[in-house]
Amino acid sequence: MSHPEPLSLDALRALHREVFAPWVQALDLQAQEVLASGARFRLPCGSQVARGGGDGPAVLCGQAMAAAADTASVL
Fold it and tell me: How many other CB atoms sit within 10 Å of the CB of residue 55?
């Protein structure tokens, strides 16, 4: 069984904008690179996806990471 050609980076980004709900888009998940074996994404740790880290820096919340992983797996 042959595998379909991967989407271009521009096509992947367009699909992300067109298919996913506004709250998923608010995560600001960024497609960085498309490879034959998959894709690379970046999830910025902004104030809307982080929680307090006590005396240390803010921590990216697990729900945001799970949503980003789910989104990336669909793309």
Answer: 5
CA distances (Å), origin 61, targets 12, 27, 48, 58, 64: 25, 11, 9, 9, 6
Q: Cα separation of 41 and 72, whole Å?
A: 7
Query: Is the four-CA dihedral 51, 28, 25, 32 of positive or negative sign?
Result: negative
Instruction: Please list the pLDDT of the chain residue by residue as tens digits (75 residues).
Output: 566 677 899 999 999 999 999 999 999 999 999 988 889 999 998 888 888 767 878 888 999 999 999 999 998
Provide the token pair at 25.
């888009």
61: phi > 0 → left, psi -120 to 50 → alpha, else beta; which?
A: beta
